[in-house]
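Practice problem 4.
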């Protein structure tokens, strides 16, 4: 699997310094192995994907449940190729190893700091620490 859904949505505060920068989203429902975060606005049932390296998120509209979001967006072939990049992940996994719980693949240096995102540049790190560090590199406090 190239992404993980959390057993229960977590308050967006779990993303640390990103919290004020992802309003109106209130919860994190999961993340990709490459460090994208799946966000939920629990008031409107709107879902989005945070692209930390780009310092941006994309809304995918309203869904009745996390399961619906997963079936329609996360399992979509186009979304997979563009965001989840299964072949890229497979190449990284071959070099860096498999992920454990709450881990993601992290390119070094980050792409917005000149990194190439070649599979050989990735290591494994904690997903929540990754979020905080990328946010701080963007200047979030």
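Answer key:
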């Amino acid at each position: 699997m190239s992404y993980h859904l959390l057993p229960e949505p977590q308050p967006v505060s779990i993303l640390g310094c990103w919290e004020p920068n992802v309003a109106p989203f209130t919860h994190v429902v999961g993340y990709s192995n490459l460090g994208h975060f799946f966000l939920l606005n629990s008031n409107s049932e709107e879902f989005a994907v945070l692209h930390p390296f780009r310092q941006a998120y994309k809304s995918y509209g309203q869904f009745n449940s996390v399961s619906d979001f997963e079936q329609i967006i996360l399992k979509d072939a186009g979304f997979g190729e563009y965001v989840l990049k299964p072949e890229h992940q497979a190449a990284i996994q071959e070099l860096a190893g498999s992920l454990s719980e709450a881990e993601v693949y992290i390119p070094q240096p980050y792409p917005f700091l000149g990194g190439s995102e070649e599979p050989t540049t990735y290591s494994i790190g904690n997903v929540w620490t990754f979020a905080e560090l990328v946010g701080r590199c963007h200047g979030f406090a």
